[in-house]
Write a structure and sequence with these properties.
The protein has about 100 residues and is an alpha+beta fold. Helices cover about 25% and strands about 30% of the residues. It is globular.
Length: about 100
């Protein structure tokens, strides 16, 4: 079973999103719940490309919330590196021209 961790940057991201998007008080618990599947299935998220090559993402707890992570297989760890609003033009999944 993989250990799931949130980086300092991801924690900062979620705090910012809570503030800027007026997210509910249980947002951190909802994010933890969304990440729980990674413990058993760390490769469940879609792969990203381009400058995000090597990273994967899940959506949740809202379909616009990107949970971007990296799998460190030899340590059996998943590290969430950033949490983003997928609707943003700077999001990891935004189309680049």
């Amino acid at each position: 079973m993989a250990r799931v961790e949130l980086s300092a940057a991801a924690l900062e991201d979620i705090d910012t999103l809570i503030r800027t998007h007026s997210l509910p008080g249980d947002t951190r618990a909802r994010v933890r719940s969304s990440l729980r599947s990674l413990e058993q299935f760390p490769q469940i998220g879609r792969e990203l490309g381009g400058r995000w090559d090597g990273f994967r993402f899940l959506l949740g707890p809202w379909r616009w919330l990107l949970l971007v992570y990296v799998l460190i297989e030899d340590e059996d760890r998943v590290v969430v590196v950033t949490i983003q609003d997928a609707r943003s033009s700077s999001a990891a999944t935004a189309a680049r021209s």
